[in-house]
Amino acid sequence: MKKTLKIVRVRDNVPIPKYALPGDAGFDLYVGEKVTLAPLERASINTGLKMEIPAGCVGIIYEKSGLSFKHGIITYGNVIDSGYRGEVRVGVMNLGKEPYTFEPGNKVAQMIIHEYEEVKFKEVKDGELSASDRGERGFGSTGK
């Protein structure tokens, strides 16, 4: 059964999110106000939306591939918990060499709703973690 994502528009110029194509995992989020990012500048961009993410789910915001590949616009730190009721904002950074301007109604990112499982925490001593093939190897340890 599909879950319902309740949406409140706090800016009339922003479209309701939608999936661009059938089968897409992410739905588009739009800019609520004009923002220009200089090269290497970061910003927290308003989407013009508040939402109620279903219990047991989290909204994760990801880049739009065209913005990242063509203009160097990336997103960061974008976890929207189910208890949050404020306007959704998107953390972005311009890694490109030119300023980039978002106009109201432009796509800025996409959100995917993920189900998750809460865990309980148990502190153990070093050596009590189960063995694995990977062990403590990380950061490039599996090759190119």
Question: How many domains make up the 3D coordinates?
Answer: 1
Superfamily (CATH H level) name: Deoxyuridine triphosphatase (dUTPase)
Q: Count up the helices.
A: 1
Helical fraction equals under 10%
Instruction: State the CATH class.
Output: Mainly Beta
SSE succession: EEEEEHEEEEE
Distance between the termini: 41 Å
- The third-level CATH topology is Deoxyuridine 5'-Triphosphate Nucleotidohydrolase, Chain A
- Which spans have pLDDT < 50 for at least 5 consecutive residues? none
Quick tags:
four-stranded antiparallel β-sheet, Deoxyuridine 5'-Triphosphate Nucleotidohydrolase, Chain A, mainly beta, 144 residues, 10 strands, globular
Describe this structure in words.
This protein is mainly β. It is 5% helix and 38% strand. The protein contains 1 helix and 10 strands, in the order βββββαβββββ. The protein has a 4-stranded antiparallel beta sheet with strand order 1-4-8-6. The termini are far apart.
Explain briefly what this protein structure is.
The chain is mostly beta strands.
List the helices and strands and how they pair.
Blueprint lengths: L5 E4 L17 E4 L4 E3 L4 E11 L4 E6 L2 H7 L1 E3 L3 E3 L5 E8 L5 E3 L4 E9 L29
Antiparallel strand pairs: 1-4, 2-10, 3-9, 4-8, 5-7, 5-10, 6-8
